[in-house]
């Protein structure tokens, strides 16, 4: 990469507000952390989160486990 070829993608941890069906990036970054595992989840791969808990998850199984722990699933 030379001086004229800059990479304008943000680096680091993003600050995200999780909404119904979408999220809003409050502070730009490349990834968020899974609330359960601590795994980096790139923003372009972010599919699972909780609006109530304002947390991101790396997979649907992890999200379900967290929802059960928090009592957010029907019994």
Tally of discrete structural domains: 1
Radius of gyration: 15 Å
Low-confidence stretches: none
Note the gap between the termini: 55 Å
Largest sheet: 2 strands, antiparallel
Mean of all residue-level pLDDT scores? 91
Key terms:
75 residues; alpha+beta; two-stranded antiparallel ribbon; 6 strands
Structural write-up:
With 75 residues, the protein is of the alpha+beta class. The protein has one domain (15-69). It has one helix and six strands. It has one helix at 60-69; strands at 15-19, 22-27, 31-33, 40-42, 48-50, 55-57. The strands form three sheets. The chain has a two-stranded antiparallel sheet with strand order 1-2. A two-stranded antiparallel sheet has the order 3-4. β1 and β2 (22-27) form a beta hairpin. The radius of gyration is 15 Å and the shape is globular. 15% of the residues are buried. The model has no long low-confidence stretch (mean pLDDT 91).
Summary?
The protein has 75 residues and is of the alpha+beta class. The protein is 13% helix and 31% strand.
Mind sketching the topology for me?
Layout: E1 15-19, E2 22-27, E3 31-33, E4 40-42, E5 48-50, E6 55-57, H1 60-69
Antiparallel strand pairs: 1-2, 3-4, 5-6
């Amino acid at each position: 990469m030379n001086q004229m070829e800059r990479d304008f993608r943000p680096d680091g941890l993003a600050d995200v507000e999780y909404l119904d069906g979408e999220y809003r990036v409050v502070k730009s970054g490349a990834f968020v952390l899974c609330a359960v595992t601590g795994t980096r989840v790139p923003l372009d791969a972010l599919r699972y989160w909780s609006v109530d808990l304002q947390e991101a998850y790396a997979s649907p199984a992890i999200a379900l486990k967290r929802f059960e722990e928090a009592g957010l699933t029907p019994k």
